[in-house]
């Protein structure tokens, strides 16, 4: 491939990544949420939560944010399959989907993104552990927000994701989140 083809392949990946801004997190429909967050919204806050957790845990915040940013990019091709659906569907691994997504991209881009996804899926470093807890904590926080917006079925999501947290800082933040409300932080910090 020549430089132009690599540039076009890389741009195709970037256009595809933009579809995450339109793809809804379908699991929230099960909880009755009529207009749930998008996959991109989830990934963005997961990256922020991950960087904060990394700071608290002594991990590399930039590495964690990078892992979190790319953790759901495959959903442009396979969709957001909620946990209840995963026992009925067999899909390609996230690494295989990523390989297809970046197959035409610049070699350094393809190698870099593939390595990030591989590490997220298979690694055991502190950064990977933090990224996994960030994904769960973000889901729990979103569930708490949906609870406060009048979606009582979100409680099951809050409870199940909170139970999966492993790191001390993630558990501490979960405890704090469960004692606060959206209105409380607005009154306190938006004066």
UniProtKB/TrEMBL annotation:
Molecular function terms, GO-annotated: 5'-deoxynucleotidase activity; metal ion binding
Record EC number: 3.1.3.89
Enzyme class: hydrolase
Cofactor(s) the record lists: Mn(2+); Co(2+)
Known catalytic reactions: a 2'-deoxyribonucleoside 5'-phosphate + H2O = a 2'-deoxyribonucleoside + phosphate
Pfam families documented for this protein: HD_3 (PF13023)
Cited InterPro entries: HD/PDEase_dom (IPR003607), HD_domain (IPR006674), YfbR/HDDC2 (IPR039356)
The UniProt record lists the keyword Metal-binding: yes
Top-rank taxon: Bacteria
Gene Ontology CC annotations of this record: cytoplasm
Keyword tRNA-binding found: no
HD/PDEase domain ranges (all copies): 35-149
Keywords carried by this UniProt record: Hydrolase, Metal-binding
Assembly with partners or alone: Homodimer.
Entry protein name: 5'-deoxynucleotidase
Biological source species: Kitasatospora gansuensis
Taxonomic lineage: Bacteria, Bacillati, Actinomycetota, Actinomycetes, Kitasatosporales
């Amino acid at each position: 491939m020549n430089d132009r083809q690599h540039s076009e392949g890389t741009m195709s990946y970037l256009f595809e990544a933009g579809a995450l801004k339109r793809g809804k997190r379908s699991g929230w429909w099960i909880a009755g949420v009529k207009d749930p967050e998008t996959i991109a919204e989830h990934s963005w806050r997961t990256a922020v939560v991950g960087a904060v957790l990394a700071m608290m845990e002594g991990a590399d915040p930039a590495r964690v944010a990078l892992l979190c940013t790319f953790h759901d990019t495959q959903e442009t091709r396979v969709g957001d399959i909620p946990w209840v659906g995963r026992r009925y569907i067999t899909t390609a691994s996230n690494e295989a989907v990523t390989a297809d997504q970046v197959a035409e991209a610049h070699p350094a881009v393809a190698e870099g993104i593939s390595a990030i996804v591989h590490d997220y899926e298979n690694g055991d470093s502190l950064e990977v552990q933090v990224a996994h807890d960030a994904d769960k904590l973000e889901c729990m926080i979103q569930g708490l927000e949906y609870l406060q917006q009048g979606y009582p079925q979100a409680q099951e999501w809050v409870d199940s994701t909170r139970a999966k947290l492993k790191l001390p800082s993630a558990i501490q933040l979960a405890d704090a989140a469960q004692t606060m409300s959206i209105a409380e932080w607005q009154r306190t910090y938006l004066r």
